[in-house]
Each structure stands twice: as structure tokens, then as C-alpha cells.
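Sensor histidine kinase
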Amino acid sequence: MVSDTMPLRALRSHSSPLYRLPGSALVLIACTAAVLLTVGLSAVFAWRDRNEAVQQATGVAGNIGLLAAEHAARLFETGDLLLTQTATLAGPADAPLPDDQETRERMALLAASAPHMVGLEIRDASGALRLSSLPDTAAATTPALWPDGLAIGDSRMDGRAVVTLAQPLPGNPPRGWAVAGLDARAFRDVYRALDVGYGHSISILKPDGTPLLREPEGGGTMGGQKGDDDTASHADDITVTRPIGDTGLSAVVTIATGSVLHRWSERLWIYAAFAAAACATVAVIGALAIQRARREREAEDALQHAYDTLEEHVHQRTAQLERANAQLEAAVTDKEVLLKEVQHRVKNNLQVICSLLRLQAARIDENARRGFDESLRRIQTMSLLHELLHRSAEPAHINFADALRQMCDGLVRSDNPTAARLELETEDWIVDADRATPLAIATSELVSNALLHAFPHGHPGTVRVMLKREENGMRLIVRDNGVGLPAGMPSQHKRPSRGGSSSGLGLNLVQALSHQAGATLKIERDGGTIFTLTIPNLPVRQQARNAA
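C-alpha cells:
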């Protein structure tokens, strides 16, 4: 027998250069590879962290841009509403522009209703101021109208920077303008309160791309890190643009890439520390491994001697075990042959007994012959089972469906005085001989009784035998559509024969055999008689132990 383990001397003389290297050299190679792998992985993880930082900053820019756009849209909606009310105060298209004190006071109330509104004005077609909610201010150039008739620009009111909204007054051509001034601080204060965490700028751009408003006002990014150029943006900065409603304006958020990378670089020490700790650990482990390799090399000679001795003992023990296995296999084969021979002889002896009983039955009267016939049938059933056991590949198990088919075929030919039809519906079931014998005899009793007594006076009928598999075992059903049980049947445990002449030995025998097989018997009347044997999966011996 060839050993599966390579001896130590064979490892030392192996053709591969790897096996001929000293253990310390192999440890050094492994440590170097581990250090390079650690540094490489640390660099990969650091680069991935950089990309994630940029992606996170892009998401922050998108959220800030959406917030700025929504905030600006709400302010413009409020200003547009006040402009509409101011245009109503200006009167119909054919009326002159108002300049009275009552209209001015109503405009002042409208302006005071919105805290971010600096003032409301009514200007004529040339842009000259006609009426204001504030003290008189200098005339300003009215911005050009957008296609929807709303003009947005920047100016100053009451000494403050404002974002102006202008709406033409009804008329053809327009007879003037309603102008609203939104305080620029209402935009800037919100933008300054946003905790972005990076150097950034927030702008509101006109449709032509020119800035209407920017925070910080200098045009650079807020919160820039030390060393960054805070006065100018760069081409690689993160920029997100969001439209502001249907005004044509857009909110633009720009985050300086330098500030993102600066925060990322502050975390690089984590990867550097991890790589340094890993390399130091590898170095310590490598030193210990080299020392251990030297000691192991010194112990290899002693191990080789022990290996040689052990291999010799293993060979001897293996030869002994092989001889013992051969003897056991021969014994098992002899046992199987002997068991089959016993089963064959039992079958032959049972057939001899049947022949002797038939000879004896020919010399007795009709009433006594019936008992002989029942005994013959039972002995033939046991003979059939022994024949199936003899043919089976497993000496102690048979296919019960085959036994039912052969047994029912014999019964319908011998015990069928009325030519009743016998139907068989079975599923394959491998069962041990301990359960097969009582179940087969019980089934033979039920089928024979149905063929003999269920259809008196030659009435045609059907006897049906079914073997079905269920979740917890098997179910064996014998049913007929004959005359049914007598009305005076005392119980399911004491059933008189259908012809009324038997003492009920058949049913008592079925009950006893069912109990022996670990099955339960149920009798029903439903257009005839139904006998149901419920057979659990639990082996008979185990059921007996549980019952005890």
C-alpha cells in the first residue's frame, strides 16, 4: 500500500526549487509579499475613500442646490403675489397711474406683510417713479421683460441691495411697471446659515449666465481651507445647478475640490497607521517564524525516524485490517446466501403443507372444507411473501405493492364466486418482513371476505384495493360497493360475516394482525363497506417500545 504522506527526506529532495529553500528564506519571501500587499491595499482603500469623499461632496452640493432653489422660488412667488396686488392698486388699463397718499399707504401695508420685502413701487413706461411704499427714491432703469412678462434684476432700495421683480401694468403698450424689491439679505442669511462643511459658493444666475446674486459676494468659496485660493473657482470644482421654478433663473452651488481633498488628506494618517501597524506585525511574526523554522529543521531528523517507524506499523496494521474485512465480507455473503436458502426452503415447505391440506380437504364435508380453504389461503399468502423475500435484493425487505398485486391476482381467480371485478391502485412501498406478513394476511382476509360475501345472489360489483402514501405513513384501503355490513353488527371489533354464518374469526384476525403491524383499523359504511388501515412510518419494534 502506498502512503498518502510524503516523507520528510522526499520533501527535501523535491524537484521544485521552493521545497529546497531553507525555511527562513521562505519566511522572508512571505513577509515581503505581505508587506507589499498591505501597502498596496492601504493605497487602494485610500483612493476609494477619496472617490467616496468627492461623491459625498457632490451629493451635499445637490442637496444644497435644491434647498437654495426651493427657497428662492418661494421668495419669488411671494414677490409675484405682491406685484399682482400692486398692479391692482394701479387701476385699470385706461386709468392714469395713481400718486395719492391712500394708495401709498396701502402699498406700504402690502410691503410690511412680507418681512423680506423692502419696498413696492409703481413706475411709468419710461421708468420714472410715480409711487413708492418708501420715501422717494431715484428713478431706475427697468430691466427687460422675460417672455412671461416678469422681469428680475438687482438694484438698491432704501440703501439696501435688493433683487427687483418688475411686472408690466395692463395697457398696450404697457402704461408702466409694478416693481417689488426683495431684500438680498433674505437670500444671503439663509445661505450663510447652511453648514456645508466645505469651501463653497451659492449663486443665483440669470438665463444668460450672469450672476444675479452670489454668496460670498467676492465670488470665491466660503469656508476655504488654509492654502486654498478663496478668490477664484477652478475648473475641477464640484458644481451643481438647480432650476428655480419657471422663472428662468437657476441656483448654482460650487464646492471647491481642494477643500474636499484637504479633509480627505486629514484622514490619510489612518491608512498610514494601519499599514505601519500591519508591517510591524508582519515583521514580528516573521522574526518568530524564522526562529521557529530553525528549531523545526533541527527536529526534522527525529521526526523522520519516527515517521519511518510509524509507516512500518501502519503497513502491518493495514494488512491485518484488509484480511479482517475480507473475512467479514465473506461472512456477510454467506449469511445472505443462507438467508435466501432458508426463505426458499420455507416457501417450499409451505407449498408442501398446502398440497397436503388440499388432499385432506378432498375427504371432508363442505362445511369443514371452508375452514381448510381459509387456512390454505393464509398459508399461500405467507408462501408468496417468502418467495418475494427470496427474489428481493434486500433479504429482509420487499416491495409491498408487488405482494398486493400477486396476492389479489390469486384471490380473484380462486375466491370469486360472483365474478366481481377487482381493481388495484398501489404505490411502491419497501417494507420490512416484520410488517409485510401481518399486513398481507390482513389484506387477504378483507379482500377474500369481500369477494365471498359482499355480492350475494350473483350480483355484479367491484372490490377496490388502494395503497397510498401520506405525510406520516401509508394508508391501505379495501372497499366494495356490495350489500354492506349487517345492521346488527355489535362493533368494529366484532364483525359477523356478511353471510351471517361465520363467527367473526376473520375480523378478529384482521384486528390482531393490524395491531401486530402497528396499524389502526377503521370500518365505514358508504355505499358498501370501507376498511382503512392507517400504517405509520414508525417501525413496529419502535412502536412496541413506545407502547411499553
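Residues 268-361 form the longest helix (94 residues).
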